[in-house]
Amino acid sequence: MKKKRITLVDLAKELELAASTISRALDNHPGISIETKEKVLKKAEELGFTRNSIASSFKKNKTLTIGVIVPRIDIHFHSLVISGIEEFAYKAGYNVTIFQSRDSLEREKEITKILQNKMSEGVIICLGTETNSYEHFEKLNRMKVPLVFYDRVPTGMEANKIVINDFESAFKATEHLIEIGCKRISHIGGNQSTGIFKARFEGYKAALTKHDFPIDESLIYFTKDLSYEEGALFAEKLVDLVPRPDGVFCSNDYTAVSAIQVFQKKLVKIPEEVAIVGFSNYPISKIIEPHLTTVNDRAFEMGLAAAKLLIGQIEEEEEIIQTEIITIKTELLIRESSSR
């Protein structure tokens, strides 16, 4: 036989107190005596009573839940961001519900409909690669739902944003290759319809221009998803070039790792003949031999900052709240793949 859940009414009958008194005692209301609070807590523990958090949320007109929309949970960067979000949200008393858009605009739109119905207190979003319009997020804005975008953020829409300086980070990565003596530097880039990958490409070009290097289109390839397979495909093309590039800057670590393996199979020495730099500091960057030089994009800190900004705005009582753009500082981690 299924055990009956102990309710607030059951607790009130046991203690011969009003249910409203029980509720206020459990909420540590200052109008309830310490003696009564202790009596209620003791009886609640004895009977195994727990508050119905959903009912309590509706009563207070707050769900204490925030939604998070990520393109792909299996990408290490987003896993770290989620960890940062949950770390801050848990300490602030909020629950986190995670949705995966899989880079689909239609799926992203459906998720925002779910979040409207579930009455999330606020939403943290990283845009999918297909996202080229923001009406679904504008609707949440009109409903006064606080929003924070991270990493891939909307252009032309006033919103809270947590970003890194992709241009500057790519500039430093490319300039590092120049400083160690590379003369022909290739770039394996991400989808140029996505702002962060376009900024990384611009940073690469700016570093070459600063040092009077030509922009050689034969050394530049753009991927659709920055997958390991795409990195290997373009590295195969680079390794057969005459003259071959002596430096490669990749827009993520997956393509950089595949490039290392392709060059090694062709018996090209790394970093002596080709130095390689990635982006994001995935765990694989410290597993591959030689260890990969990469940009640490501080994903966990990005998650912490996003949750702090969102929850701060949820709890702000002012009707008009100023939007913020926060830039997380990155770091170039120099390892064996570019240590000459």
UniProtKB/TrEMBL annotation:
Alphabetized SMART domains for the sequence: HTH_LACI
CDD domains linked to this entry: HTH_LacI, PBP1_LacI_sugar_binding-like
Pfam families on file: LacI, Peripla_BP_1
Taxonomic superkingdom: Bacteria
Keyword Isomerase: no
InterPro entries, alphabetized: HTH_LacI, Lambda_DNA-bd_dom_sf, Peripla_BP/Lac1_sug-bd_dom, Peripla_BP_I
GO MF annotation list: DNA-binding transcription factor activity; transcription cis-regulatory region binding
Record field: transmembrane: none
UniProt keyword list: DNA-binding, Transcription, Transcription regulation
Residue ranges annotated for the HTH lacI-type domain, each copy included: 6-60
Protein name: HTH lacI-type domain-containing protein
